[in-house]
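Why do we bother with holo predictions? Because pocket geometry can differ from the apo form. Keep that in mind while you read this record for zinc ion.
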Amino acid sequence: MSRVGVMAKQDYYATLGVARDAKADDLKKAYRKLAMKFHPDRNPGDAQAEARFKEVNEAYDVLKDDQKRAAYDRFGHAAFENGGPGAGGFAGGAGLGDIFDQMFGEFMGGRGRSRGPRAGADIRAAVEIDLAEAFAGTKVQLRVPTRVACEACNGTGSETKERSSDTCGTCHGAGKVRAQQGFFLIERTCPTCGGSGRVIRNPCRICAGAGTVQRERSLQVAIPAGIEDGTRIRMAAEGEAGGPNAVPGDLYVHVAIRPHQIFQRDGANIFCRVPLRMTQAALGGEVEVPAIDGSKARVKIPPGTQSGEQFRLRGKGFSVLRSAQRGDMFIQVAVETPQQLTRRQRELLEEFEAEARGHAKGSPESEGFFAKVREFFENGGR
Ligand SMILES: [Zn+2]
Ligand SMILES: [Zn+2]
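The structure, written out:
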């Protein structure tokens, strides 16, 4: 062992901050806590943390082993110096990473979550559909310029079959670089390795080591029935490919609905304005109206229907998203005054008008209004 300053070496129990009679579980707990705290991944470039990390590992390596612990309890550090009873057990730091990886992997879900390769970028795309398509749901074929995994290297970024890489020279494997900016120490993703901490030894000639290439991708977007204008659909992992081992980004599709010629939509309800001839409105009857699902519906118009009156057709609206319910369709009638009368029409209407003057009940709103006008003049214009 080449360790110097042995005399000043801290007691293993003190290093882990546990009592001398600590149970195996307590040792493990204390070790994990400290190992997490001083792990080089979390303290890039911090020599003191690295030294503590080694101490913690050394202490735990001895104390977790019943035999070594017994030797340590009897002889102290001397147990492992110069061929002492426990010598040869702990190799002064070699293989530490392996031990640590095994332990760390258990409770961190693998190492390097805080660094590691950058995820691929998200993509935004937009589609425009008809109201009828929004009603029924549809599939839209999208072509998006994106980055996909490089076919030449299978996304590894490496020219050789095995992906061999070196520790990044810029960040020394940390994946992050620090720069002093005024009073602040700014930490950002390493520009050389993109945060992975490694650089490819033999970069692929096609993608220059990026692992991804620019392509136009064609993909299908399923648009659910009942979708609202302005909805954003997220397609997980359909964004740009990341570098080697990185997760792809997501694709966000913005859905706009083209205005319809005859239907207006309000949530699950549909509105349709239907013109009515004056005589149809007066006599009543039936009109045929189109529905958003492509069918036809008949609406009964009662005699004496006024302009602006609404009729509801239940269940003829939009389907409500994630339910079997459907909204309603509202038919709003607009009574149309005839223009360019034929001579016969004119005669009939003049005759009609003569008849109407003597029949106050036939036009209650007019009658009410003119009664108020008469009152107004009788009161001297008040
Ligand atoms: Zn490649
Ligand atoms: Zn780097």
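Residues 168, 170-171, 175, 190, 192-193, 197 surround zinc ion (ligand 2) (CB under 6 Å).
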